[in-house]
Structure formats: C-alpha cells, structure tokens
Specification:
single chain, about 150 residues, mainly alpha, 6 helices, elongated
Length: about 150
C-alpha cells in the first residue's frame, strides 16, 4: 500500500510539473525545495529495494528537474566543494582548519558565555558572596546552628 501511494504521488508530481522548469514557472519556490529534498535522495541513493527508484527514473521530467537543480545549485556535483573554497591538507593527511584562529575564537566564546552567566547569577541574586569575619554591624554572622539554638 505504501509503495502504491508513493508511486501515485510521484506520478502526480510528474503530471503537475509537466514541461516546466519549476513547479510555479521559471523560478524556484519553497515547494521546489521541499520536493527536491525528497526526490534527490530517492534518485541518487543506492537502495536495497529499487522499485520506487525505478518508477522515479521512468518519469523523465522529474529526473530532469532534479538534475537541473543539482547543476544549478550544486555545480560541484555534491561530492567536492567548489574550487573557489581553499582546502589545505596537513602533514598527517587531515584537512587543516579553514580559520587559523578557530580555537582562539571558540575559547573566547566559551569565556564570554561563562562571564555572562556568572554576571547574571550575581546580579540577579542567585549567587552571593559572604565574607568571613564580622558583618557590617560589627557582629559575627549567625550560622544556621546558632540560629536554631536561639529559637
């Protein structure tokens, strides 16, 4: 039943697309992004049961639709990033970080977040610091045990 419904859905999408480049004319819409996100994996992935994939491949306009979106928005064929993005490989064969200051920026982000949280905790009264020795009135602060004895 699920395969039958999926086949029917693909057929209806194919009929709706017709000979247009996108579902609503010559420019893509959110529906095109949604449909492509479902069709491209079905078209490109290796599946254990290829019944639905074979049906999609028989609908030439949907195959052309996926291929045109892939070439338009993913010109590097989805496998390798474009040549305009520099990639460096370290001595151990691993890719070097694109941003040389990435670790420093991460550490600074963590420190700023920590300071912000501590500042909020102190200013809101969640955390307070009590100093040892005498209080502002010249008396020793009362501990919980002394307070219970007074009652």
């Amino acid at each position: 039943q699920v395969y039958r419904d999926a086949r029917e859905c693909l057929t209806l999408l194919s009929q709706r697309l017709g000979s247009q480049k996108f579902f609503f004319g010559d420019s893509p819409a959110s529906l095109d992004a949604f449909v492509f996100s479902r069709l491209a994996p079905l078209l490109k992935a290796k599946l254990p049961n290829g019944k639905l994939q074979q049906h999609l491949k028989s609908l030439q306009n949907l195959c052309n639709y996926c291929t045109s979106i892939l070439s338009l928005y993913f010109p590097w064929d989805g496998g390798e990033p474009p040549a305009s993005i520099p990639r460096t490989v370290g001595a151990d064969g691993a890719e070097a970080e694109d941003d040389p200051h990435k670790r420093r920026n991460q550490l600074l982000s963590v420190l700023v977040g920590l300071v912000a949280m501590l500042g909020y905790a102190f200013l809101s009264g969640i955390v307070s610091i009590q100093r040892g020795g005498t209080g502002p009135s010249g008396r020793q602060p009362i501990t919980l045990e002394e307070e219970e004895e007074e009652e």
